[in-house]
Amino acid sequence: MNLILLGAPGAGKGTQSEKISERYGIPAIATGDILRKAIQEGTEMGKAAKSYMDAGRLVPDEVVIGIIRDYLASDACRNGFILDGFPRSIPQAEALDAMGIRIDVVLSLEVPDEKIVERMSGRRVCSCGASYHVTYKPPKTEGVCDKCGAALYIRDDDAEETVRRRLATFHAQTEPLKEYYSSRGLLLTVQGQEEVADTTALVLGALRRFEA
Ligand code: AMP
Fold it and tell me: Phi and psi dihedrals of 120, rounded to 5?
């Protein structure tokens, strides 16, 4: 299954992509995680991306398209993949089409803006890619990743002002992708629920009909 997860920042794409990845045994490719890792490692790509990310803007297309091209060509994606955070604009979707990549389903996770702002203020993340929320998805030990034991941290771009900028970027540049994919008959919409498990049940239920 070749799947794209669409949704505002903080809609729960990362959390749901973990669940889909476990269910179908396909890798989740999160451009945001890859960029944050590059920043931590101090690579040229990280340096180029940081100022855009800190400002809540999209990193230039050539950077993210290059990342995706490399990942999709790798052996790990042979049986399918989940794209979490890519494409984020029409030009990126067109670049994906131009790579000749077949997409089976585009799942849009819908969450109202005010809910997003509330969620982001409680988000805690780990450098391994795991994501938690102090109220909705707390780790077993406060401040410590369940998966790898590392210390959790607050993302720089989760400050409220930056979250609002990211939401504006989402509405202006990413949301038009819903029309782009619905006109191709690929769009599935799921309403994000209060409880993660309830959203997961809806997501996995909706994907069942795409099973081979
Ligand atoms: P995320 O972790 O998906 O919320 O992404 C965090 C930040 O990384 C975004 O606010 C963007 O600055 C950048 N980013 C992630 N994916 C993309 C993409 N496909 N295109 C451009 N910028 C991206």
Answer: -65, -30
Please give the distance, rounded to the nearest whole angstrom, from the Cα atom of residue 206 to the centre of ligand 1: 26
Residue 40 phi/psi, 5-degree rounding, is -60, -35
Question: Alpha carbon 192 to chain centroid distance?
Answer: 14
Q: What is the structure's pLDDT at 212?
A: 66
32 close to ligand 1 (CB < 6 Angstrom): yes
Alpha carbons 108 and 83: distance in angstroms, whole number: 12
**pLDDT tens by residue, 153-198:** 998 888 888 999 999 999 999 999 999 999 999 999 999 998 889 9
The CB-side HSE value for 100 (13 A sphere, CA atoms) comes to 1
Residue 64 Cβ inside 6 Å of ligand 1? The answer reads yes
Q: Cα dist. 152→80, 122, 133, 155, 166 in Å? A: 30, 12, 11, 10, 22
